[in-house]
Amino acid sequence: MAEPGEVEPEQQERDRETELEAGRMPFMQHLGELRDRVRNAAIAFGVAFLICWGFADDIFAWLRRPLFDIWDKHSGPEIEKLIQLHLLPRSWDWGPPKLVFTGLTEPFWVNMSVALWAGIFVASPFIFYQLWRFIAPGLYKRERKIAAAFTVLSAVFFICGALFCYRYALPALNNYMLSYNEADRQA
Q: Fewer CB atoms inside 10 Å of the end CB: C or N, the chain?
């Protein structure tokens, strides 16, 4: 006999079976549910992509800022050498660095790539929500609680990782790449 407030093992088993039955559906109904979830995720991605396409230049300017910050540090000594050799006037205004495209379609594909990745990033909460809505009915209540905590922590860690990459990893990578084989590099 169970203590007051405790549930008997037989009752727990019946509750589990009832919970499992609530999430059961025929195979074709599962496919229909999957189709609906994939469609909703694709629509969310498409909308996010189109919005990000409109802001692709601004997003790209934000993404290249760490490169330009490091570029100033690396190009400063080289420019100073050219000024000392009287190859450049001291009053020369370089302005901000510019990226050079070597192909006719490169600017288009850069914007396309930026919009694609930004669209995935922006739509990812809704995409993961659709994934959760498909998977959750097949889980027990205890498993849903664990999965919900895992999902929230995954989202937080993903955002923290993206911020860490932008703030620390990209500047370090750009610094290394600009200093690699510096003697043979031509700007």
A: N
